[in-house]
Amino acid sequence: MKVELEADKCVASGQCVVAAMDVFDQDDDGIAILLTEQVGDDQIDDVKEAVAVCPAAAIRLVGA
Amino acid sequence: MAETVAGPAHDVAGTAPEFPMPRASGCPFDPPPGLKELQEQGPLVKVRLWDGSEPWLVTRYAEQRAVLGDPRVSADTDRPGYPTKTSAEAGEGKLSFIMMDDPEHARLRRMVTAPFAIRKVEALRPAVQRIVDGLIDDMLSGPGPVDLVEAFALPVPSLVICELLGVPYDDHAMFQDNTRTMVRTTATPEERGAATREIAGYLAGQIARRLTDPKDDLLSGIAGRVAAGELTHGQATEMALLLLIAGHETTANMITLGTAALLEHPDQLALLRDTDDPRLVASAVEELLRYLHITHLGRRRAVTADMEIAGQVIRAGEGVIMVNEIGNRDPEVFEAPDRLDITRDARRHVAFGFGVHQCLGQPLARMELQVVYGTLYRRIPTLRLACALEDVKFKHDAFIYGIHELPVTW
């Protein structure tokens, strides 16, 4: 599956990094960045958690 | 009885229940029973405030997140319908970006997000551990009982935020006393104004000094924005004030409330005390944030355009209050929500709010609480209250719920 991140919406809470450290990181200002767009089956639960806890609704999980 | 979502908006005007509501005696860790009853009535219920206004209380988790994440609600306290907490608050100036809307909110907030990035916060963990260990050493080397607020809970976040901002901790008595006045709901507008002016004047001076003599701290970063013409000196001072006071009463009260709650739940305390698994400590922090909740007066917003939530139309110019305290006890989201269980996955709680205004300092608060909860009870395994729980004075009279004094011994 594919992760989409709208960095313009990000409020630098860092909760995506806590939930899925292999998929998300932060730039020097704390704004989220994607380490990978494609996530494996073993990462999907963590990314779903990141989607759920992101306060800015800036993350989406798309695709089959 | 309360007006519910099913009823017309105005036929029972003047009969809405008052908010805030009292807690049940003997249940200092649970939300007021009246709030739980409102939650059962519906997701949106009208309540009556100190000034007679009747905003909507949003009672359930899903609706609270929806409203807090909606751009049609405003955090601007000057907007029509904004539900103020007290007459003193109604007459106050802006506390920087937490009382602004995007895009100005986002512009200002992004100026100070850098030190709260996860990696930067993690880099501070050893320093926080030293602070916590040092304060515990001091407690253990002196006689008990001590007031855990003064000896430990307040100094931990105060030392950390002073270090981060670059404010000399030697001045802590001044800003701790004034912060206490600022968060007291019974303070008069004059008292709150004077307290705010004293800290603001102090911080304005600190920023002015850094304009000519910058250091490696957050205040110098803020001063740099003034030099670059991105902030006025007044805006910079408001921002520094927000960061300084936000770190104090919040984390300190989570430390004392968490300790008192754990002492009342010895099985949970034992789990935490006997573990060396940082994941269980982190899990305990999330559960205590969910279970306890210090922002008992709710997150407040003014609606700027008609919007429909849970089938109810909320009109532009109406106020909304999200009491995350009961959102975190919503049985639709958390199984057996009134049980303290540090092993549950509580990460989706809304203790830090939700939406673009979600607490900026949350990674720092989490890390500090992990160090505190992971250290205090292991280092002092015989820690106990030095008075009956009934004699502990809880902060019903403050914007931030917590404990005035917590006498402990060991």
UniProtKB/TrEMBL annotation, chain B:
SUPFAM superfamilies: Cytochrome P450. This is Cytochrome P450. Belongs to the cytochrome P450 family. It comes from Streptomyces canus. Keywords: Heme, Iron, Metal-binding, Monooxygenase, Oxidoreductase. GO terms for molecular function: heme binding; iron ion binding; monooxygenase activity; oxidoreductase activity, acting on paired donors, with incorporation or reduction of molecular oxygen. Residues 1-33 are annotated as: Disordered. The keyword Transcription does not apply.
